[in-house]
Amino acid sequence: MVQFTPRSINFLKSNLSIGEGTSPQDESESNFQVIPDHLFQILIFEENSEHPKLIYGTKQNLQDMLVHPNSSDSTLFPSIGTSLDEDFLSDIPGEFRDAQRSTARFLKQARELSQRMAATWLNEEKIPTDEDKIKIKLARKILNSYNLPLDTYFVNDEGTLNNNPSGLEQLIMTAQVGNQDLYLIKREYVSYSSISLSLLLCGQAYYKNGNEWTRIWEPIFSNYEMVYEYALDLSWDTYYATRKDIAQPGINQNPPYTEVTLGYPPKPPEFNLTQEDIQRWVRAKEMPLTGEEDSEFPFYPPKENGKFVSDQIRFVAPPFPYLPLSTV
Asked: How many whole angstroms separate alpha carbon 263 and alpha carbon 69?
């Protein structure tokens, strides 16, 4: 007989909004499959702090720490990452639709990553809101220091941060015994050295804004992709991303299985790339909207009578040279 405690009921309630309307691409990472005692990692910038902290904790304890009574569900994790418009590809038979959705989502991730990285090249006067200025500043901070060691803590059942190494080791060992460490980027993984970048891209990086915690970037990738698929690196001398398999001879293999190096060179001079062109790409909307100034480089084809006129994706790469091309 299943027993529901107040804690488990609150957990289920907190995840209802995530579970609604999930598509086939999302089902592998539905929050309904993640129990409150699974371990996760988040990256946090406390108020007025320039140095991030890496925090371990159960989903329940981290969620209790992040969610303010007046905050939105945008702090919930793990996320499915970027998703496609539900009407896109809906007329294609299921056996073909799933394959095409996978490709379309992959390309949408590449577009979003290019736009987000380009946003860090905007001058302050080109960033529209104070909140965006903070987020871009912190994202730039992570990109410029992604492989530096982090101060590491864990949050206990009382919601207190603790940096006792033996306590953290005990927490991790207990999770391993119970198979509750599936969502951790472990220290023995090649991806651990760039964990701050991984957490930024899967929406598990936050900053303290008054009494509330706010996501720095909305997730492009799922937590599952960051743990099992991608080990991230940055290159300062190229505009192009590269992707290669990670060789692991023998029977004791660890994720992730693919290494992706993102191009993040110094910002070009105004002569080569104007602030206006950066802004046009960063602000480009996914959906083509008639008469909208910021929909000149849409991802989706246009609609007629509420339906997409084709299955053809439009803009994935930036239309201007000297912007990061981040095909993952």
From this structure: 39
